[in-house]
Amino acid sequence: MGSRQNISCKMFFSGYPAPNKAVELIIVHLSSDRAFRKRRANAPRIIISSLANENNRAMDTAAVLQEIYRCYREKRLADVVELLSDDFTFTAQLPDDIDGAIRPRSRAETAILVHKFMEQYDILAFETGPIIVTDGVASAEADAKFRHKKTGKVLETRFLHDWRVADGKARELAQRHDLEQLKAFLSSVSDGIA
């Protein structure tokens, strides 16, 4: 038999199952022939592995990100900024970036960007799926629906986020999105966010 490698991946959800209901847990593993296999187990609760310190870090990371997302949905920018480290960087290709260059933005630049956005748009929905923490990176998808305040036009889009969190604060956010969709929408409202 060949050697086996353990890969750790944790998922945290923003809600809880209804009382007395089973939770379906799908466990995916890589078999010896390098093909993905699934095992299903129904149980009234999920028991996380015995690696307490690693789980606590992952849970702390997920809790920080859940709070950031909640504060963002509620348009509480000061609370979002408080959850970002002093050396926080936000990286994304934005519609107004010159020559398609992607550059990291500081905590202060990010706060200004988000403030301007919140002045121009209503957040109709911003729903995140599970936060998956693997090897120090927390990944999440966010389905968003925004309404441009001046025109009433609505943008529905998805953001893919990769976060790094340390000492209870977000240190990095790399965001991916449909850049062409965002450019077309901004053109349709003829009012940029920057």
Features:
194 residues, alpha+beta, two-stranded antiparallel ribbon, globular, disordered N terminus
Would you write up a description of this structure?
The structure is a single chain. Helix content is 27%, strand content 39%. The longest helix is centred in the first third of the chain and has 22 residues. The strands form two sheets. Strands 1, 4, 5, 6, 7, 8, 9 and 10 form an eight-stranded mixed β-sheet that branches. The chain has a two-stranded antiparallel ribbon with strand order 2-3. It is globular, with a radius of gyration of 19 Å. It contains four helices and ten strands.
Structural class: alpha+beta
The CATH class is: Alpha Beta
CATH topology: Nuclear Transport Factor 2, Chain: A
The N- to C-terminal Cα distance equals: 58 Å
Please identify, by name, the CATH architecture: Roll
Strand content: 35-45%
Strand runs, count: 10
Low-confidence stretches: 3-55
Helical percent range? 25-40%
Q: Biggest β-sheet: count, sense, barrel?
A: 8 strands, mixed
| Rg over CA atoms | 19 Å
Average predicted local confidence, pLDDT? 76
Number of helices: 4
Task: Count up the domains.
Answer: 1
Order of helices and strands: EEEHHEEHEEEEEH
Task: Tell me, briefly, the overall form.
Answer: globular
